[in-house]
Amino acid sequence: MKDIKIEVKDLCLYYGEKKALKEISLEIPRNKVTALIGPSGCGKSTFLRCINRMNDLIPDVKITGQMLVEGVDIYDKNVDVVNIRKKIGMVFQKSNPFPKSIYENVAYGPKINGIKDKTQLDEIVETSLRQAAIWEEVKDRLGDSAMGLSGGQQQRLCIARTLAVSPDIILMDEPASALDPISTSKIEELVQELKEQYTIIIVTHNMQQAARTSDYTAFFYLGELIEIGKTNGIFTKPEQKQTEDYITGRFG
Amino acid sequence: MKKSKKEITPDFFSNQKKGVDIKGKLVVGITQVAVLLIIAILFVILGIIVYEGRERFSWEFISSFPTDGMTKGGIFPALIGTFILVVVMSIAAVPFGTITAIYLTEYAKENSKIAAAVRFSVRTLAVVPSIIFGLFGLGFFIQFLGAGIDKTFNGGELHWGQPNILWASLTMSLLTLPVIIVSVEEALKTIPRELREASLALGATKWQTIKNVVLPGSVSGIMTGTILAVSRGAGEVAPILFTGAAYYLATLPESLSDQFMNLGYHIYIMSTQSSDVEKTMPIQFATTLVLLILTLSLNLVAVIIRSRIRRKAK
């Protein structure tokens, strides 16, 4: 039996009257990369944002069903959303560093968690930047503004920033869609290294990226989960016709 | 072969075909005249003030007290009074306005009735004539609040229940509050959603996000609001007419319960209440010049601070 990190049961999401996610049930294994694929508007990003309750920020959103992380329903009334987000980090489609120094960007999370000790912060910053494979590029200019970095560097900085709060799960919302091929491959390599320690869920438009980086793939279509399984299986022998059509490029 | 109607011929792009575009030229002409007119008006006003005021304008004029029934001497106390007024006003209005703006943009729900009521009040406040603020200040701050304080703490002895700097400043802060709220609100709205989400996704609370990401990004907006409020406050006379401005004082104010002289009020007094208006004309112009320099340089300082913050943010 595989080791389950997240278990979703009959999750539905409504934007006002509109049902954007329909009875999603799936299991996400620990320390693996799970890719969410599907055409635009299929609900994959919306689903991703359910996992760290980012949709709470949008008015008129209603969610039913269960999202069990380590067996705990994160939508339970007794759960503190702030703690959820500390354990479940997120990397966004558009790199969004704070207009602060590189150092301050990474130290942001630990600082709001109450870490004040300079040596400890230095250590976290270095470790996180190393993990995100950007340390060598920025170690001599930690005090410089993060806005001066290239797009790919900014995105890796954002990953480092996420790692600095030591989450268990990392959600990535099309993290490489705005990057050039070289930066993209760096991010993909990084994902491979990070899965040793983290459970990663990555939304991608890019089929090759899903095939290259993920262990499991879930295909969403029109708010429904059509199919989930080992990436190998999904890409070679999809069970559903719709999945096959999408993967082979017949629509989407 | 029949020529298609849509075919582009070489002279399609030529502008000589249809003759001169009179309408277009007219619109451009009118806008240019309007712009020139505004610049001209500004220069005429500034020119007259500088020309007429230059005679009396000197360091001595700025740094000395009025003498001989205010027909001679300087405007030092009016300058200091104006300065204290805008400082106390800013201390009251900037935090209050900023907090209100934070509530409106960050905490209030989109269709919140309270927020709608606050927004309506702010808009209404902005169009209330300034003399009404003066009357309100007299009624509320002096006769109600001040007199109440005297009754409760001073055994009825008149101390706070009369016009002073504090009440004048607070009255002025009510007048400038909408300016601050609106510019801070605008500044807060310019912080992109992505940055807020980045902070929240790291496990920051809403307040931590506002404090660490939203407010630092809005400093220049808060600054702009403060500047606009200060230059407005330095020039307005009506709100302080009944609440603290004095005709003439031989000494500088020593506490917030003292009255004060004020540049705008001084000009008003000189041009309407003086025994010899003709004689004080040069003083009036020079005072106006000082007031103009004061507000312009305040603006300049703020613009410099703002551009520095912007450069730093980059």
In short:
The complex is a heterodimer of chains A (252) and B (314). Chain A is an alpha/beta fold.
General description of the model:
- The complex is a heterodimer of chains A (252) and B (314).
- With 252 residues, chain A is α/β, with parallel strands linked by helices.
- Helix content of chain A is 36%, strand content 27%.
- Chain A is built from ten helices and ten strands.
- In chain A, helix 3 (102-112) runs parallel beside helix 6 and helix 6 runs parallel beside helix 7.
- Chain B has 314 residues and is an all-alpha fold.
- Chain B has a single domain, classed as MetI-like fold.
- Chain B contains eleven helices and two strands, in the order H-H-E-E-H-H-H-H-H-H-H-H-H.
- The A-B interface holds A 52, 54, 57, 59, 82-83, 85-86, 89-90, 92, 94, 96-99, 108-109, 112-113, 145, 147, 158, 161-162, 165 and B 109-110, 192, 194-195, 197-205, 208, 212-213, 217, 313-314.
Write the layout of secondary structure elements.
The complex is a heterodimer of chains A (252) and B (314).
Chain A: E1 4-15, E2 18-29, E3 33-37, H1 44-51, E4 61-69, E5 72-73, H2 81-87, E6 88-91, H3 102-112, H4 118-131, H5 135-138, H6 151-163, E7 169-173, H7 181-194, E8 199-203, H8 207-213, E9 216-221, E10 224-230, H9 231-236, H10 241-247
Parallel strand pairs in A: 3-8, 3-9, 6-7, 7-8
Antiparallel strand pairs in A: 1-2, 1-4, 4-5, 9-10
Helix pairs in contact in A: 3-4, 3-6, 4-6, 6-7
Chain B: H1 22-53, H2 59-63, E1 66-67, E2 72-73, H3 76-107, H4 113-127, H5 130-153, H6 165-189, H7 193-201, H8 206-235, H9 238-241, H10 263-272, H11 277-313
Antiparallel strand pairs in B: 1-2
Count structural domains of chain B: 1
Q: Output the structural class of chain B.
A: mainly alpha
**What is the helical fraction of chain B, as a range of percent?**
over 70%
Provide the structure class of chain A.
alpha/beta
Shape descriptor of chain A reads: globular
List keywords for this structure.
heterodimer; A: 252 residues; alpha/beta; 6-stranded mixed β-sheet; 4-stranded antiparallel β-sheet; 10 helices; 10 strands; 27% strand; globular; B: 314 residues; mainly alpha; MetI-like fold; two-stranded antiparallel sheet; 2 strands; 1% strand
